[in-house]
Amino acid sequence: MDYKKINAPTNTVTHDMNTLCAPVGNVYETVAIIAKRANQIDAEIKKELDEKLQEYVQHGDHIEEVFENREQIEISRYYEKLPKATLMATEEFEQEKLFYRNPLKDRTAE
Fold first, then answer.
1. Using CA atoms, how far apart are residues 73 and 64, in angstroms rounded to an integer?
2. What digits encode the pLDDT tens for the residues 2-51?
3. Is the entire prediction scored with pTM above 0.90?
4. The Cα angle at residue 49 between residues 46 and 50, in degrees rounded to 5
């Protein structure tokens, strides 16, 4: 996923819950959908960051020897500046980029 293209704010934003939950019709279900997507985004970011930082891992016996690599610092700064996963998930939900379904509602509709 390209996180540069997500136009999510980096600061906390107040949302009108009536308009946010309008597609689903239930505040709690809306929050659950956004929370699950935020967990997915967070896991993707963590995996990507771990893969990028893996090449800088030094296997040494001395704890005192800590070398700071400039590239490693830049990678860390990039990920620190990204918007929070909940803000990204909320932005995706507002732009209707999320596919979601409730299996319990699907069963009762049959």
1. 19
2. 666 677 777 777 888 888 888 888 899 999 999 999 999 999 999 998 98
3. no
4. 85
Q: Could you tell me which of 40, 51, 39 has the C-alpha nearest to residue 79?
A: 51
DSSP letter for 17, please: H
Do residues 44 and 92 touch, judged by C-beta distance below 8 A? Answer: no
Residue 49 CB neighbour total at 10 angstroms:
15
SS3 of 25, please? coil
Contacts 24+ apart (CB under 8 A), 83-86: 83/6, 83/8, 83/9, 83/10, 84/10, 84/38, 85/38, 85/39, 85/41, 85/42, 85/45, 86/34, 86/35, 86/38
Question: Mean pLDDT, the chain, as a whole number?
Answer: 82
Residues 82/3, Cβ–Cβ less than 8 Å: yes
Asked if residues 44 and 91 have their Cβ atoms less than 8 Å apart, the reply is no
Q: How far apart are the C-alpha atoms of 24 and 47, rounded to whole Å? A: 30
